[in-house]
Fold each of these.
Amino acid sequence: MRQVDNHPGSGGSGRADPVGQLVATLEPNPPLVVDELHTATLLERQGVTDQEARDRYGCEDVFELAGEMFRRLPRRPDPPRDETSARPPQRFVLLTHGLLYSVPGVVYPAVLVEIGGPALLRGMLLATTLGWIWGMGTSVTAYRLLGQGYPQAAARIWRRLSLLGLGIAAADAMMLAATGAGDASLAVFVVLQMSFQLASGVLVFYGMEWRLAVIVLPTFVAGGAYLAHRYDVGHAVPVLITAVGTCVLAAGVAWWATGPTRQPRDRGAQPAPVRPALFSVLPCIAYAVLSALFLLYNTVPFVTAPLDLALAMAPLVVGMGTVEWRTHRFNIQAVELVRRARTTAEFHRSVWRLLLRELALCILTLASLGTLLLLALSVAGLLTPRGMLLVTTYLVLGGAYFVGFITVNHGHFSSILGITGAVLVLNIAATNSMAQYFAPYGEVPIFLASCVVLLALLLMALRLNIGDVHHYR
């Protein structure tokens, strides 16, 4: 780092030291910073640019100014380890999330026998969409409360919002059954799937993936046996009984995990900021709504399609744990890049290359899973060109999810909401007006084009801010 030569009295100028004055503005209670990275974050949030660092403080850029400031800040003891802080998730645990997400799909063939195709389709859409949106809102709220030092409040919010969500699901399912195909069994199906989605969210939140894996194992075995018997109607009931038991057991363990006596005490005497935490997740919920609509609108036509189309999403579902893991790896490696970079321009180039590399690894992993599926379908004589194209489409969508996760972590909701909403509208318009010209299953190429556009636009938006240091504190 180049020496800053404008200290008080240096060069006989008699001018006040600009860097010293900047440090003095942080007194008498300077923020706790542990390295140059945190100092650079502080400067960026105060609006200090590279140009200002050169013109006013005699440094090459914000990085150099941050290093100079960090050496001058008073040393403070390291804070005690927060017992409420979540431990970094392990790689293998993250990779198992994809399998856990796919549990409801194992039971769908047996549910189809019990309630019929139209009712299954309507119930699946309701349960999946509501569970996705409600689960994301609940988990983000709980994470915010936990991060602010309110573990008991986070557990209470899990319990209360989960019960409220199940009530809403039951009311919506009964209304759905009264207005179309389905009966009381449809409502039971919706409530059970919703309860499993919320319970699995609780267990993942508290790092209990292994317990969840043990709970769902019988359902995987029963569903696999049902498929092996080629959808024999006589074997559907044991699968359904096993699935009900899995949902009930998962809900019971989730209720136990959120018990007040299992959580550390909340910090301080002030009540937990539950209402601000709830309002702060509205952008996340909006993104979940748009993502769910985009996925489900383009997936519904293939639920009752030939097997290669119906199973095309399986590699994405199973590989979502990999997408989650690569997102986590990107965040860790980006912080390391900040600490090694000597200029903001160097960091911007390095972190962009890192993003593209992690994106390529995500798509490569999903492509490997997709290749296994295509080979199995080909051996069985069930593979069609449309099936190959749809598998490719979900690979691109997985890449878009990865970039979307990074964008959400950076807090740039205006760009991701605008892009996802615009692509959704264009996708619906194109499907309704052009699918007939690409038959059979003309929705597939339109879906692929929409996913490519979504990924490209998200990358363009992220390119503008990925080099901002404050994202990698």
Amino acid sequence: MPSRSLYPHQWSWDSAFIAIGLRHISPLRAQTELDTLLAAQWADGRIPHIVFNPSVPLDAYFPSPDFWRSSTAGRAAGAPRTVQTSGIVQPPVHALAAWLVHLADPGLSRARGFLTRMYPRLAAWHRYLLHRRDLGGGGLVSVVHPWEQGMDNSPCWDRPLSRVTPAPARSFRRADLDHGSPEGRPTDLDYGRYVRLASDYRDRGYADGAGEFAVEDPAFNALLIASEYALARIADELGAAGSARQARAERLTAALVERLWEPAAGMFLCRDVRAGELIPERGVSGLIPLLLPTLPHDLAATLVRTMRGPHFGLGGTTRLVPSYDLLGEAFDPHRYWRGPAWINTNWLLEGGLRLHGERGRADALRKGILHTADASGFAEYVDPYTAQACGATGFGWTAALTLDLLHDRPAGRGNGVTAIKGGDRG
């Protein structure tokens, strides 16, 4: 669970990050985290973004299992019958997590057949994304709901969401406001649009391609590429050739640059597939491709300058990278993904900095993450200026990724991101 009160079920990308941290204190428990999540995988390959705990009351979280109706509405897509899930997905961090968990105790992993179990499931997951979600036809994956990208109410979604007619407020009850301040959560209008998108997707039997919302996101695709590199390492470990997956990761990196790089912004932008245009909002998502090992050096250097410039302020006005442009009209330092800093995105950027030879800046960001996690009570997210805690405290991935950064590593090695290429670059 990310949080016992606010998020009392199992979340997909949270579990991946949690396993990355748990591997340092219990590789077996980290393996179990991923085994449990993938046991709920659908037959079409998708890994659902929520696996519901049947002992939790329905009104503890919305949307609850009776909203998603996975075992009935998702039957044609191969939803499991013995466990209730959502029908959408989240960023594909799982292969990276599986490879790092293996490296924590290779003997235990081999004895338990961990990667042998993981590999076909992860390969099916990537196949689903690459074959069913290339809605723009350019080789990249599209998300069909803001919850899939993980940065739920980012201003990057405002333009494509504006085309969605919200569900009536009386048609649902938000449980999140029972545990979090309204000033720090998505608005009711946002939620109305989220509910409309999700219910329409459900009513289509979770078939992809027909919805109003389809966005190519740089972070989602960068994490898929990083996990393709990890799958290549897993394939090599299992005696299969990983070279084809590595080549695919390199092709996807080229597609990412071709479709989402915006030189004038100095970063990657989201593409609204339905409108056929880039979305002119600067979110932290557009910096995450820094974690890719074959990103051209000039683009990596530009991302570092943008990260440290006035739009994100790292090392100047902010200690951690905020989730959204400090100068953007929609910036809000306390409202979820519209400005606060998050530990998971900063963990990814710390690894990207280190991967591209920016060790001093990576060390400074690592120090900032550790200080902020401790001082905030391991908060879900924080004010990027003051580091004031926002959202839930004792948050799962904040604690887990703190464990990862605290773990003693050989000099020069990154936070795990570098493991996809076997070491530092530069």
Amino acid sequence: MAILDRYLYPQLPAQRIIPLVLWPITLMMVLQRSIIMGVNGDRTDDFSPVYQAALRFLNSQAVYGENYDTVDPHYLYPPSGTLLMAPLAIIDPERSRWLFIAASVLVLIACAYLLTRLFGFSGRSWVFPVVLFFFFSTETVAHTLIFTNFNSFVLLGMLGFLLLSLRRHDLWAGVAIGLTLAVKPVLAPLLLLPLLNRQWKVLITAVGIPVVLNALAWPMSVDPGSFISRTIPYLGEARDYYNSSIAGNGAYFGVADWLVIVLRIAFVVMAVFSLWFLYRYYRRTNELLWITTSSGILLVTTFLVGSLGQGYYSMLLFPLLLTVLLPGSPMRNWPAWLGVYGCMTFDAFYSVQWEAFGRMLEFNKVTWGWSLLMIAVFCSLLFRYLDLRRAGLTGADGPTLESPTSTDAESDISGGEGRAAVATVEK
């Protein structure tokens, strides 16, 4: 009978079943999001302003002459970004957009692989299809393809920066983040991390590349001064449309200025404490957890308290989310993942029956998602600090902490490659 059961009920471990289930579903999602939804486009088109700016740049025409009083997408890249985007206008706009979507899909797949490797798992593990499935199920990835913007390349630069920083290839880490800063400065807050970690060489290329590219692009542009006189002031304004920052959300709903200021200060205070606690207690013993969690805190705080925070920026929080696989992650609580749902869900809350309520939920979901995520991470770290304080372990030098043991981590990361993940953590 046992021999019969062997053939009738073949046994497969969970780490083999998960890829069998997710790979066909994920591949179909990739095709649907890119070939159907991406090519179809939507009411917002981030690609056309970039293409038109690149075309004007190649034809020696003014680039920064848009009317910023409209709610249409505007071209906001600096001259260095214009120089890098210029090849897009060599071919016609339709084929250029399709190629850009195809490149974005390949980059996102590469990002899922790099994120898997960052946490110590191989491309053959169950983690890779899970990460890729999660990527393409989110609003942030879907709208990056539908609106056709540069965010997937920013995520690639961020992951390259994190990986190379951990491996102490400092100059190359600076190259990875510097190329993204030359186009859009959304990752600029992450430069605080190499400063804190005394990896000064990162700044040479991270700052040098945008400076050099701007120096090259400046004499090639017709109106580079307009970027400083017109575009930068516009970037500092908190517009009341397509803006999920606290200031933008407050402007749309008519929130009192004093309350907006109080909320922004509160989130900055939470970020400062969280970064201090992570630096003091995790940087030396668990550098992977320190750098990925700190990067997420810096970015989500920037999205909330800055002048512009758009929902599809949330893809830059993927490294923070995957820390859930690591012992000590502040993502191991349900409020944090409720916040993730808010800022990454593709669900719409428009309601026929309760129109005003549904509209309020829809326009607030990203803001409350970021806020809840930040509050959950802050509270998780605050409670740990209070526990350490009650135990008398918060002296001047701080406690002597040890990295998680292989046994601890392997019990937390079920299946496959727990030891590889621990090796990366303890590096």
Amino acid sequence: MSKRFNIWFLALAAVLVSRLIGMALFPFADTTEPRYAEIARLMAETGDWITPWFEPGVPFWGKPPLSFWAQALAIKVFGLSEFSLRLPSWLATLAMVWLVWRLAKQLWNVHAALWSSLVFATMALTYISAGAVMTDSFLALGTTLTLVSFCLVMSGEDGPWRWLFFIGLVIGLLSKGPLAVVLVGIPVVLWLLLFKHEVASLRKFPWWRGALLTVFLVGPWYLLAELKTPGFLDYFIVGEHIRRFLDPGWTGDLYGSAHDQPKGMIWLFWLWASFPWGLVALVGVIASWFAGRGTGRIRLPLSHPGSCFLFVSALAPMLFFTAAGNTLWTYVLPSLPFTAMLIGRWISDMDSVRLFGMRPLLVGLVPVLLTVFVGLTTAGLIPFKTEKELVSYYLQVRKPGDSPLLYLDDLPFSARYYSRGTAMEISEDDWKELRQRDGVRRFYVAVPEDWSDREIAALSPSADKVLRNRRYQLLAIETPVRNLQSASNADGALLNDS
């Protein structure tokens, strides 16, 4: 057992450490990561820990601040970089890996626990989200902590788990809001309906004191957020938690666009998110169904209380989002710890069957593929939707009197982040007014990559194409300077007027 433990521990450590490579090397790509990264950067820069800001003067009401708190704190401690902003998600994933190991060990044995944690860490969505600037990792940490605590307490554990149940709710409510309560409530209620005799064991939890603790830790921020920017509660509670999911074409999103998907798409997202293990398990279920016998046969775990709780916990996010029209594959993440424990138990019992030889390949599949993708992207062999290179070039060549970096009609989030909030979006009418100003030596304007030479010449006959990426061409446009004093103040004038 000691040798096996060492092998699995080293494999798990290698998987988790390999994710650090992409965290440090991979640029932020539009739209999710740089959008959240810029919100965290503004929080660290302004010191406003109550209201996340979408941009100066525009509050971000789409999510509570826990993930932004963690990312802004990482900036304060480690400096501004892709790695520091991604580190909190990696730590949240590390905590979930431990929770998976802890519950699987309690329900079965160390062997099953090791496989469960390894399966969870090498699922596609787990591995990707572990090194991404997202809020979903914190929601999943909260729901996982609450549900693991519930299962442990109901199976006889005592001590801090009774209180960690409520701490998990706090994490969920401060990372994604009331959705956390729903994703926790569905499996708990379903399980109690199946095992009615367990209802009496609910008295093990300090319900009144735990509820007061939750309100004490969560309530002040919600109240302060509404007082500081009135309208937050209506948008966040009603809009984000009711209209978004009931209306597939919901147009109330202030910060992006609705993700219109066919109803039930969340189940296909589960296959994608749990790859390769979910697909392997599904094939195993189908094979067992037709074979009707064999070592690898899978049965629905409804008779054993612990396994049944994992089953309903794994199903809960898909059950909730089945009728929703606005869904993303990241919504599956709270399901994966419990999916992994069920699959890990099955995998751990298959030493004598054909799948045994495939397990190392399955463990390494996602980490190797993503690490290779990171390497190819970093080497420039795979084009990527990021403005890091373009913004870096502008910052290197700009001189006093040059304009801020201007994007015509559309400012990508990655340009906003990498320019530290100085890049500006302008319209063609804005451009006509700006080019008439005195005091700007050179304009830097990013236009769509597919613009023809004729369109560029219409914008300015003196435009010089200095850089090109997947989406934009960067133009340097020289202008005669009639007022050298105003040239030295050009940046400030443009920013203030805009």
